[in-house]
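Figure S7 source data.
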Amino acid sequence: MSKQATGGEVVAPPEGFAPNSGVDSYDKYKVMYDRSLADPKGFWSDVIKEGGLHFEEDFDQSKDVFSYNYHHTKGAIDISWFPGGKTNLSYNALDRNIEQGRGDQTAIIWEGNEPTDSATLTYQELKDLVCQIANYLKSAGVKRGDRVNIYMPMLPELPATMLACTRIGAIHSVVFAGFSANSLSDRILDNKSTVLVTTSGVLRGKKLIPLKNIVDDALGLCEGQGHSVETCVVLENKHALTRDNCTFKEGRDVWWEDAVLSQPKECAVEWMNSEDPLFMLYTSGSTGKPKGVLHTTAGYMIGAYTTVKYIFDAKPGDIYWCTADCGWVTGHTYLTYGPLLNGVTTLVFEGVPTYPNAGRCWSIVDKHKVTQFYTAPTAIRSLMGFGNDWVTKHQRTSLRLLGSVGEPINPEAWKWYHEVVGNKNCPIVDTWWQTETGGIMITPLPGAWGMKPGSATFPFFGVKPVVLDEKGQEQEGACEGYLAIKQPWPSQMRSIYGDHARFETTYFKHYDGYYFTGDGCRRDADGYYWITGRVDDVINVSGHRIGTAEVESALDMHDSCCEAAVVGYEHPVKGQGIYAFVTLMAGAEPNDTLRKELVMLVRREIGAFAAPDAIHFAPGLPKTRSGKIMRRILRKIASNEYDQLSDTSTLADPSIVQKLIDSKDK
Ligand code: WT7
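Tokens for the predicted WT7 complex:
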């Protein structure tokens, strides 16, 4: 990946786009943006009114629209929006659209792993299904505030199950169906849910993943820790794995078809308080186990609605495709909730972009007349590698807008996306945000201003970014430093499930009075923001966040491993690859068999996507006299940047640096 240039060229938005979009110029944006900060109550009240978002009880207009404490020295960190309001996300995403006459419009287009498999659900059909799932969950004892774990592939039933939970006020926790049994059990043990919704299996390309087997293992691990899941609902994904090929535990397991499809298609919504928990989603941090990021009802809903409306220029009739899996936050906000709140059609794709060939995405775009396409830089770079013919043999004339998310997009990939995929007719929205932020924070508004390839440009409404120096001082003008956010925005996370103290330490202790993002950032002389990547021990592999500590503790489990240290390094397709330094126990042989075993261990413990790309059998690790591993040095060695090792004098044994360089596979 090439390094960002300092200034960056400006690419004008396609002519004619802005006049038909919600915000047609920078000046108009500026007026709206300033108001969103100066008069948040007026701004967000208008958003709710114009969008016709339904509050069963309006929030208290006599109070501030939000209140907060960002100072850990002044008591608990606390954020709250829309005081006194009552609403329901599932109602606004489904019933409200039906009441507004969109019952027969397609809500979900499902495209299967095989190009011959697709199906659609109208808003009415989706609502019926959601009610059936909700009724089943209630009959299984799920109540408001209870947690429900979901471990499913990209079938329409996955977003439907999420909507069923939010309908009855249950807190969903979707676990990406690429996670291992271990990771799934860790998450269940953390939220102590007794209900799991899953699927027999899934085909990804030609590869069959027997999800139910993984679930059996995970639930067994939970039992071993004294927690039992009482109800496991299993959807039969017939084209991947039939019932007869699945295990079934009487008394615990129930088939979806029997349990759900016999339920009534009406289910009253539970009116939730603005700040009632909505869902949790586990994400990796720099230390310890993944944390359950907790989002709440009204703020998240309004954030999801507003960002899709303005950033994706969503209009009823649009066929919007976000390639993310619902197991990640993008699949929550930009595949499920945001699009449905805007009454558009959202596409759910079960397969992979390279099956049956590298033209699959563009063949889907033509088949379903996709208007907005939102994906990750890693996918763009990977498809770029297959050559332009796979793109140009498809029409792509329906495309109006392209989006990017998950990691910095290198200018080369940006240009290819813009010129080859979009024929220069589509603005590109490079959207910076995080699981924690709930929705997009820094982004172009399509058509409203010139884009700079590699820059996420300007803050969205209500977002007040600052660039801090080492000491936590705000910097003015063109500068580089740490990205923090100054005051709350509606869709911000409110806590870490079951560990509010960890929430406070992770995000508010670094810089008192700010939410700290963990990202580095540069602001250029034109005020454009350039995200430079994580500044903590979190790595971003193919847009998936992985904590180095998690990979290290998986490697440490191997009998031959004495100590492991993991860093990210530049990878041409994945953005970052995983580089593991491993020191061995006396007598252990540093050979390929051991290498494979170590990789397998990580796959088993976390999931295939976290498998190290390189294992370096190291003679020792660079440590300070107090025993702290100096990752800065390891990062340089992994990246072959030997001339930039800077000061190594604080190491207990400075000679280790040369030994590490010499022991590297050339
Ligand atoms: C981290 C958050 C947000 C959904 C997907 C990932 C990086 C995300 C961008 C972007 C540069 C980006 C940041 C951030 N990131 N989008 N457009 N440009 N970096 O969510 O797993 O919570 O990861 O992804 O480093 O902190 P996540």
